[in-house]
Amino acid sequence: METNALWSRRRFLGGVVATGAALTGVAWSFAGEATAQPTPSSPSVRDTINGILAFVAPGHDPYSQHQGVSTEAPGGVTPGAAETLERTFDLAVPIPLIDMLGIAVTGSAAIAALVDLFAVTAEPASVAGPFASPFANLSHATKAHVFELLDTEPQFPGRPIEYAVNAIPTLAAFVAYSEVSAFDGELRALTGRPVGWELTGYDGVSDGWDEFQGYYGGVDRAEG
Questions:
Q1: Which of 1, 129, 204, 216 is 20 to 30 A away from residue 9, measured at CA?
Q2: CB-hemisphere CA count at 13 Å for 72?
Q3: CA 203 from centre of chain
Q4: Does 215 reside within a domain?
Q5: What is the pTM of this model?
Q6: Is there a contact between 148 and 165 (Cβ–Cβ < 8 Å)?
Q7: pLDDT of 23-38, one tens digit each?
């Protein structure tokens, strides 16, 4: 049912893709087929990515605090996490996602545009807020609703965009719970205790645990 407050997903996707792209700070270039080149330092794309990380793993960062679900400890929004997730999306989504109206957007810019499109259809007022990204301006519950809309959009099944949508929270969780917050890429070594280890209660690398050393009950072989 379509109301003044909530546009239908089909009408929204079909008619305001260009608006959503503008919201995410994507620069359009119309040479032959319309294409969009992602802006690596776009504040809107970065805010969207951080908004996703805060949704998946809330922490004490501004994005988590604004969404109304936060903790007193670090979460998904940690140093290096947004850059890593953007790079992951750039590699995972090399083909256009938003191809309606002949507009091609790829990588993290495509993910940000897509998520922000559905953020605005879920809550039109999200265009205004402390962040440049509509998605980042949403509450945690409304962010969940955005992913519900993405999961149930009838135009997506059977298209590459369906798999990209499923990968958004999954890849965000991989980054949030990884060692990226304390990993030096040049040295290929940890510089401290990763936030992901704290989130999971992981004690760190070990050569083994006492309970797994030796033989249980003195049994050292099994007879066939």
A1: 129
A2: 0
A3: 27
A4: no
A5: 0.75
A6: no
A7: 333 332 222 233 334 3
